[in-house]
Design brief:
84 residues, 76% helix, mainly alpha
């Protein structure tokens, strides 16, 4: 096991914990499938300013952590194959 695998493993563990916590902090959707078909309450203040809400920031942070996790996984695998 080389240094890249250890560092990559630590980063992946941290990102997986962060993703789990961020997903748990997000609120569920309201209205279920009916809101999905009818558009829900997108005319509200929070619907129009979706990028400024707490859930929008949590969503962006979750997406960022998932991308970092994916990239680190690919890099660690590539280095493992390359350095073999």
């Amino acid at each position: 096991m080389n240094v890249f695998e250890v560092i990559g493993g630590i980063i992946m563990i941290l990102m997986s914990v962060a993703i789990s916590l961020l997903v748990l902090l997000q609120e569920g959707t309201k209205g279920g499938s009916i809101a999905a078909l009818t558009g829900g309450d997108t005319d509200s203040f929070f619907g129009k300013n979706g990028g400024l809400t707490r859930d929008a920031m949590l969503y962006k942070a979750t997406r960022f952590c998932a991308i970092v996790f994916f990239v680190v996984t690919i890099v660690v695998y590539g280095l493992n194959v390359y350095l073999g």
